Amino acid sequence: MDWQQLWTIVSLPDNVPIVLLLFVVPFYTWYGLKQAFANDRLIDQLEADPAMAKTHHRKTQPWKPGWAKEVHVWPFLLRIEFLAAIIVTVILMVWSITLNAPLEEPANPTLTMNPSKAPWYFLGLQEMLVYFDPWIAGVVMPSLIIVGLMVIPYIDANPLGNGYYTYKQRKFAIWTFIFGFIVLWVSMIVIGTLIRGPGWMWFWPGMTWDHNRLIFEVNQDLPDIVLTNWLGIKSPLLKSLFGATLIGLYSVGAWIGIHKLIVSTPLSRKIYARMSLLQYITMQIFMITMLALPVKIALRLLFRIKYVLVTPWFNV
Amino acid sequence: MADGNGKNGNPVTTGTPAAPPNGGNGKSKLATLIEESKVVKDKAVEELKALKQPEKTDVFKSILRVKHDETPRSRALGVLSNVFLHLHPAKINRDAVAYNYTWGMGGMTFYVYLTLVFTGTLLMFYYHPSKVVAFRDILYLEHDVPFGKLLRNMHRWGAHLMVIMIELHMFRVYLTGSYKKPREFNWVVGVLLLVLTLLLSFTGYLLPDDQLGFWAVTVGTNMARATPLLGHDGPFGAMLGMTPFNDVRFGLLGGSIVDSNALLRAYIWHCVAIPIIASAFMVVHFWRVRKDGGISGPAPVMLESEIKEPKKV
Question: Is A51 in contact with A44 (CB distance < 8 Å)?
Fold first, then answer.
């Protein structure tokens, strides 16, 4: 256990936001879900008791008849805003006094930094470079993330859960976002920051960053393994077709799996019935693409597979 | 000066003549003068008393346009008729002011943006976007400019804080389903703001012209060379005649390597173009929050049994 190495990584000024993320993301996940479960209990109560549902104010917050439903912005909101501004200023000041912004040597194109890392919020994408070619990790994926985020309101056909925390009424939606945000985005950033060392190699926390470390990995393409090694087929066309077939099979399998999830509960079947065909197809495409990431990561890490589909123009 | 409607807004005796000029017989000119000055003194005392309540003065009213009294109407107008506060509604959902619903992340993001504009403007006074002096400017800023180091630190950490806060803001909006009808489009605007924020942060990364920024931007823009169709290393790029000197990466960097043109481009994007674009989107974002019915909740929970049939188009 190399504590000094661990401290060097964690205390690197630019890594402080990630250490911060390690605390705030779990905290706010807990904070939001706690309220979601509280609301779910209320929903259960109200569903069980229609008479109560008619008279109840339907919030977990306290309420008494005669209380005004709205309060004046001045002072009740503005004082909070002013207070928040002061607190943020103080935090920023203290942070800035205690920790200096990083400044390395002058830019030198002849001296490559090792590891040379993108800013922390792009490290998820840089981590994807291990598993995908740059045109996917650097161009297609960011575009899909942006477009995928934008279409969320238009493909979410669930009318429930508008303006309050709930888990029970939006299980599929909540799991999707937690998977996308926490598993794919935040944890990849954490890996890129804290785990990846020189040569973008995997160093567990506490391992010494050995700049001379070599890992002999022979990554093979899946068509090469199956067709060439096992069956002795060498035609590039057949290999490409094989890869395309595999991707097609994955897509169909994922499609069916996601569909089964979508129609797994009575509520989700109701929502499914409300979806237009376009909404459904759009959602499926984004879900299948999103699920492809962990699949490819597993293929690479467990079976040392570089590409599934090899063509003369691009590889996946 | 004083407002006649105020609590003790006793009108100052401005109109009454101090001493009738014709009644001066028998008194000396000196006595008249003393008498007149007493009146002036009384007047001054009276006006000073009124100044103890500056909010009752006409000057105050001329600035804020509304009376400062304890009526709900005045309170509402104090917010609605103020250019900085008018994006707020007059009243707000009583449960929305508790921290647990919104986490305050959206508002704090905007506040951090303001501090970034402020510190960034100050930093611009000490920085030349030129390969020769950029790095030296940072050294000068860190070691010679009063509070220069603090300024740069605040700008750097503020930028990180903004990205974290935006991500948490999106997380909250998602968990509360606030992107649902009628707020769908505002979520789209929010996603664009996220992208613009990341671009702002990324362009700023290069400006110190140190190894960190140089290699981060090199790694980042190297992805652009792999853009399908438009990058010289990307799928079908070479077929379309893309070379390192005409592809999308060349356009981003103003050259085939990260050099002085890239620095200038990053500077202009960072200090002028993106802030203007982002500000425009922020205006839309905040305006839509109001127009779409204010903050989304905490709304009364809806039950599964109450789902209505969707409207057929």
Answer: no
The residue of B87, B178, B203, B211 whose CB has the most chain A CBs within 10 angstroms, and thus the best one to mutate to test that interface, is B211
Contact B79 A88 (CB under 8 A): no
A195 and A205 Cβ atoms separated by less than 8 Å: yes
Structure-token match 């508790």, residue found: B98
The string of pLDDT tens digits covering residues A66-104 is: 888 899 988 899 999 999 999 999 999 999 999 999 888
Q: Residues of B with CB below 8 A from A53's CB?
A: 303
| Residues A87-123 as b or e (16 or more Cβ within 10 Å = b) | ebeeebeebbeeeebebeebbeeeeebebbbbbbbbb
| Helices B260-268/B211-224 angle, 10° precision | 90
**A224: number of CA atoms within 13 Å, CB side?**
10
The pTM of this model reads 0.88
Tokens encoding A290: 């999103």
Residue range of the domain that includes B157 = 99-295
CATH for B226: 1.20.810.10
In a domain, B151, yes or no: yes
Q: Rounded to the nearest 5 degrees, what angle is found at the Cα of A231, between the Cα atoms of A226 and A234?
A: 85
HEC per residue, A116-163: CCCCHHHHHHHHHHHHCCHHHHHHHHHHHHHHHHHHHHHHCCCCCCCC
pLDDT in tens, A148-163: 999 999 999 999 999 9
Does some domain include residue B308? no
Chain B's closest residue to A133, CA to CA, is: B226
Q: Does B167 contact chain A (CB < 8 Å)?
A: yes
Q: What is the mean pLDDT of each run of 10 residues along chain B (313 residues)?
A: 45 49 67 93 89 81 78 85 86 89 94 96 95 94 94 95 96 95 95 96 93 89 86 85 88 89 95 96 95 89 85 66
Whether residue B213 sits in one domain with residue B256: yes
